[in-house]
Amino acid sequence: MADHSPAGPGRAARRQAAAPAKRKRTSPLVIAGRTVACATSLAVLCGSGFSWYAYTSLTTGLTTSTALSAVKKSAPPHLDNSVNILLIGLDSRKDMNGNDLPKQFVQDELNAGSSDIGGYNTNTLIVLHIPANGGKVTALSIPRDDYVMDYNGDGSQQGMHKIKEAYGRAKAVADQKLANKGLSKAQEEQQSREVGREATLATVQKFLGIPIDHFAEVNLLGFYDIAQQVGPVQVCLNHATSDPAETGQGSGFSGQAGINTLNASQALAFVRQRHNLPNGDLDRTHRQQAFISSVEYKLKQEGVFGDLGKMQGLFNVVKKDVVIDDQWNILDFAQQAPNLTGGNVEFNTLPIAGFATIGGEDVNKVNPVEIQQIVQTLFGHDPAPAPTDSSSAAPASAPAAPAAPSSAPAAQASGTADVYNASTVSGAAANESKALAGMGLKAGRVTEASSHPKTTQVTYGAGEKDSADAVAARYGVSAAPSSAVAAGHIQVILGTGYTPPGGAATAGGAAGSPAAAGGASSDPAASLPMQGPPVKMGGIPCVN
To answer: What domains sit in the chain, N to C, each tagged with a CATH number?
Structure first.
């Protein structure tokens, strides 16, 4: 163990070099000071559920990455001492050495057909924001198909692509450069993955306008292993659903409304389903959030946190399947860990401005300027000024790769919003009118609805398709044109099943149908145009 005394690591050497002399007695005050320091350190460790043994056990054999160092220089500045952690879910059918994952796993458990499917897409991108003064942790999910400017680790532009592709595109270029350098297959895989990680970190930092302090990456097998180690996990569905396992398409998941108990294979299918869901990929994002919440809830209920014996199995899985940055001090994080449990985390999904087909692929239109303003507001900072340089401005003004200007992401919403309330939530129309005004819309009529649809409806008149798509995204529905709506207007009818975007239904661990959310939330996210309602930890959230 290193010498942590005030004299520093060279103390023993100086003792040997010095001439023999009478040993100087250590002051009782110094001894007392060291005792207090040791006791304080031990209290911190024990209070966080860790010990020196656990720390050594956890960190020895971990796979670490230096990718964060490569993008530090180009990262946006820190505004305070908060910590941002990026969780990366890699949709790869390869292990860390580039070998195909076991055929049985890919075909039988993953229902993916082949190890050649999936590439190196980052299908899960979640940022955890831990405030400098503690308190509630905010988690933001980035929809994987957001059409943005992708970057390389050195800050150069890859071009306009889906955000999930930054990793794989950078890795492919690196593979070509490393091909004839005499590296083993494992060495080439590891080095090219580092380039992919750098690209993902750089792209997320540019897109959100925040620095990433730490990151963790896990692939499909790692997720499966973790789910298997945790054991059966309960999730809650708003509605029954089925996604037949067709080769390379369906996830194979089938579930009933209410509580479902999943094994590892079913859990993997649950978080991968995107077909036969009302909002496709966007609902899959909410499922990822809900599964994390359900796992945390189970571990807490079973007393795993703070039990070193129970945590050992999870430690071993982490060592085998997870990559973390080499700057992550586990002891420091242990002190922050209590903020991540007990219902103290809220997941939100960043909004999209609509859909488009570019280069034959379906993408999400987004406005990076609006996204950065949302992130700054949600994380408790003043909104950042609109960027003036084309590398970080909205893609409409950036040098787009082979996409027509008309397909570029939409600007901030405009037009007039008329809001009608068919729900039982008092003041809902007025609150939503204010929220839509925050998106750039003019406030129109605000009154009770004459019709009473169950689901919120968004219709629009001539010239307002893009703005209506952005409004519909707030409620997780699709906008439709209507000749009954005046040109320049968007009509919103809050359905009888309307839940304020700041609230979320949870099952609280009890079997049964999804619980309705309460009143409007005081959280900052409640007034922001998020993609559907938040998912809150502390129970078993109900999702589509």
So the answer is: 64-302+317-358 (3.40.630.190), 413-502 (3.30.70.2390)
